[in-house]
Write a structure and sequence with these properties.
This protein has about 290 residues and is mainly alpha-helical. It contains eight helices and three strands. The longest helix has 30 residues.
């Protein structure tokens, strides 16, 4: 994919900023830098997942006899861990910042400013690299928004450093860390919500089940549909299964094959569902399925 190289470059730049901020935070004791480094860690994970999604799309999963969908769910498990770490970091930063507001330690505003400038410049470069691709790819757009959030975090660090240098008010670092923590929490909660929805096999948000049912019912040769399920294996990989009752005119394999082709084509075109499973049934077969979901 044409955007893969730029995403990889942006990921490398983000990791550079993460290391710089973590080192300077350790040297100076800046809580804002440490919080922003944690923010960078979460967003670097998001960019890495965008790259992984591209790799999966190009190569497919390594399916086996025990893992018929390969290791696609690994992304979801790692995303859940990342969300918990980010949430824990935000809570720790918030508690530490509240304690520091009234008793802030002396900090080297100059070093903090250098780290903030480096972070801001590199994030702006990342935004420029991803700007065009964000209009063409959802994965790249997600990465673009994450880098934008990182840039705002760097701005908060930079402002706190300027305040410290001009006024000597060291509590500005704690205030900046609270701002960054407030930016981390929504991302962590959103990430955990998405993980929960995937693990609970909820219908993807961008799929209207009733609309999907109408499309299936409108397919020539289809009389009814039941046991309709749509869920997600991992991000960007929705799958579907359904029991389709065919009309009496569908009497042989050739007609059934034509119905299946029309159904798969409809799903791929209108709902971006490439992996679908249909059970073809004659009228009256539903009576032998007392557990069926209508």
């Amino acid at each position: 994919m044409q955007h893969r190289g730029r995403l990889a470059v942006v990921l490398g730049l983000s990791l550079v900023v993460l290391v710089v901020e973590a080192v300077v935070a350790w040297v100076t004791g800046s809580l804002a830098l440490l919080a922003d480094a944690g923010h960078m860690l979460g967003d670097s994970f998001g960019i890495a997942m965008a790259l992984a999604a591209i790799a999966v799309a190009q190569r497919g999963g390594a399916a086996g006899s025990r893992r018929s969908f390969g290791y696609h769910r690994t992304e979801i498990l790692v995303a859940g861990l990342n969300g918990l770490v980010l949430l824990g970091l935000a809570v720790w930063v918030t508690v530490s910042a509240v304690r520091r507001v009234g008793d802030a330690p002396a900090l080297d505003g100059g070093l903090i400013m250098v780290a903030g400038v480096i972070g801001l410049v590199i994030n702006l470069v990342g935004l420029l690299l991803l700007r065009d691709g964000s209009r063409e790819s959802l994965n790249v757009r997600g990465a673009y928004l994450e880098v934008m959030g990182d840039a705002l975090g760097s701005v908060a660090v930079l402002i706190s450093a300027i305040v410290i240098l001009l006024t000597g008010w060291y509590a500005a670092d704690a205030i900046a860390s609270l701002v960054i923590a407030a930016m981390i929490v929504p991302r962590a909660i959103s990430l955990l919500r998405e993980v929960a929805e995937v693990l609970l096999e909820a219908t993807p948000r961008d799929v209207d089940l009733e609309e999907l049912r109408e499309h299936i019912m409108g397919t020539p040769g289809v009389a009814d549909v039941h046991d309709l399920h749509v869920w997600t294996i991992t991000s960007g990989m929705p799958v579907m299964s359904a029991h389709v009752v065919v009309e009496d005119s569908v009497t042989g394999m050739e007609e059934a094959h034509a119905v299946l082709d029309r159904l798969r084509g409809c799903l791929a075109e209108h709902f971006d569902v490439e992996h679908s499973t249909f059970q073809i049934e004659p009228a009256g077969h539903l009576d032998s399925e007392p557990h069926a979901h209508h």
